[in-house]
Amino acid sequence: MKKLIYFLLFLLPIIGYTQQNLLQDSPLEYAWKNVGNAGFSSWEVGYTSLAFSPSGQPYVAFSDREHAWDETVMKFDGTNWVIVGIAGFSAGYTNFTSLTFSPSGQPYVAYQDGVNSGKATVMKFDGTNWVIVGIAGFSAGYTSYTSLTFSPSGQPYVAYQDGGNSGKATVMKFDGANWVYIGTAGFSIDNALYTCLAFSPSGQSYVAYEDWGDSLKATVMKFDGTNWVNVGNAGFSAGRALFTSLAFSPSGQPYVAYKDYVNSKKATVMRFNGTDWENVGIAGFSGDNANSISLVFSPLGEPYVAYSDGSNSNKATVMKFDGTNWVNVGTAGFSIDGAGDTSLAFSSSGVPYVAYMDVGNDSKATVMKYDSVYIGINELKETKLSMYPNPATDKITVETSQTPIKSQLSIMNVNGQQLITRHITETKTQLDISSLPSGVYFVRLTNDRAVEVGKIVKQ
After folding, report:
1. Which CATH code is given to the segment(s) 2-27+378-458?
2. Is the pLDDT of residue 10 over 70?
3. 87, 42 in Cβ contact below 8 A?
4. What is d(CA 218, CA 239) in angstroms, rounded to the nearest whole number?
5. Rounded to 5 degrees, what angle do the CA atoms 257, 262, 265 make?
6. Percentage of the chain modeled with pLDDT above 70
7. How confident is the model at residue 415 (pLDDT cuts 50, 70, 90)?
8. Residues of 72-84 as b/e, b for ≥16 C-beta within 10 angstroms?
9. For the chain, which residues make up each domain, given as ranges?
10. Other C-beta atoms within 10 Å of 197: how many?
11. How far is CA 287 from CA 59, 294, 297, 320, 352, in A?
12. Which residue in 37, 40, 54, 316 has a CA-CA distance of 20 to 30 Å to 223?
């Protein structure tokens, strides 16, 4: 056995080199890494919303404490996160930010407008300034859970909980001159929370929400051209559903993700099969207490969910449905610390990105992406991993040449499964590996600026 292990250790540098080009689907080749600096905003943020421009740049909108919680949008220019227009461009404080792009590539932001009695306002960036779309505070009353998207014909639509209509769901669109209602204002039976708007491939508008008229369960309604009608049964979830997030599969099926109170507050995803709502995989597939759930389909047609993971100290976790099971995308709880207001989006090349309020960086904004670890390896040339003894039997010592800042040290098996994790603040860390079976393992150090990977053998 020892001879085989030493032989594998000898071969690993060769294998590692060839895998970089030949095994791009290997979990060992990918990791969650920061896009630019972690905590790139000037101060604390709220209601982070992530979207990609048609040219492929990630943008993040948020309520900005540095500017009295006014709205700010930043984009990543390939090197740094930079302000789009001016920081704090809204007239006053904002809540429930929703960011999207027009077909022509202009960023639009919808929000609850603090200086307009909490009503809905939409602004767009015209290339120089942020300007109001229509009038500020166009809704009948205060709004919550604003959700902004564009119709296939290029018109901006906003769904929200409508304080001017007893807290029910309302959808409005901008017709080029005014904001007008789609169907009846306040069309839901009762209060509608966590309103989420999406268009089917055929161009019909759908809204998902937590339905106070049906025991706080999930309901989805669509506009049939005249009226808002239920999609399947109202209140189709088994119990209370929070953080409802709606998306369409490439084949046109509506999917809804939510925090499932019947299943230990875990994440559940359901889809409408044309007749009934059915679970996608198992109900309650995540760890306990999933918050800020964001559902998106990858370019390959796989549903992904990002959420704040209560079973991992409220850190960010992303999972996808592989056709049979919900599986982690990379490491569960991959953020340095707690992640609030998680927002998921895909680049045009199919790379998942997550924006969030980063507790580990003074509650500033951070964006991470799941990409090849080799892009980040040894970006800090002066930071090298030293591991000894190697081979080892019960303990190993890992050294780095610089004091790590908010670094995470992980040991993974050859299948990419994370077995041991430590947050480190010293240059030298000792790990107990006595419980690991004999074999080859990978040691990975991740921090705000780089990812480094080494190999060890456990005898």
Report:
1. 2.60.40.3080
2. no
3. yes
4. 8
5. 60
6. 88
7. low
8. bbbbbeeeebeeb
9. 2-27+378-458, 29-375
10. 24
11. 29, 15, 21, 14, 20
12. 54
- HEC string for the chain: CHHHHHHHHHHHHHHHHHHHHHCCCCHHHEEEEECCCCCCCCCCEEEEEEEECCCCCEEEEEEEHHHCCEEEEEEECCCCEEECCCCCCCCCCEEEEEEEECCCCCEEEEEEEHHHCCEEEEEEECCCCEEECCCCCCCCCCEEEEEEEECCCCCEEEEEEEHHHCCEEEEEEECCCCEEECCCCCCCCCCEEEEEEEECCCCCEEEEEEEHHHCCEEEEEEECCCCEEECCCCCCCCCCEEEEEEEECCCCCEEEEEEEHHHCCEEEEEEECCCCEEECCCCCCCCCCEEEEEEEECCCCCEEEEEEEHHHCCEEEEEEECCCCEEECCCCCCCCCCEEEEEEEECCCCCEEEEEEEHHHCCEEEEEEEEEHHHHCCCCCCCCEEEECCCECCEEEEEECCCCCCEEEEEECCCCCEEEEEEECCCEEEEECCCCCCEEEEEEEECCCCEEEEEEEEC
What type of residue is 456?
A: I
Question: Which tokens is 270 given?
Answer: 């359901």
pLDDT at 378 over 60: no
pLDDT, position 402: 65
pLDDT of residue 413: 75
Q: Is the pLDDT of residue 293 over 80?
A: yes
Q: Is residue 341 a contact partner of residue 32, using CB atoms and an 8 Å limit?
A: no
| Range from 25-39, 302-316, 376-390 that averages highest in pLDDT | 302-316
- The class that CATH gives domain 29-375 is mainly beta
Residue 127 burial class via C-beta count within 10 angstroms: exposed 0-12, middle 13-18, buried 19 and up? exposed
Among 3-7, 60-64, 208-212, 404-408, the minimum mean pLDDT is found in 3-7
Q: Is the pLDDT of residue 127 over 90?
A: yes
Query: In one letter, which amino acid is 168?
Result: K
In this predicted structure, the answer to whether residue 5 has a pLDDT above a threshold of 80 is no
Interval 157-178: pLDDT, tens? 999 999 999 999 999 999 999 9
When pLDDT is cut at 50, 70 and 90, the band that residue 27 belongs to is very low
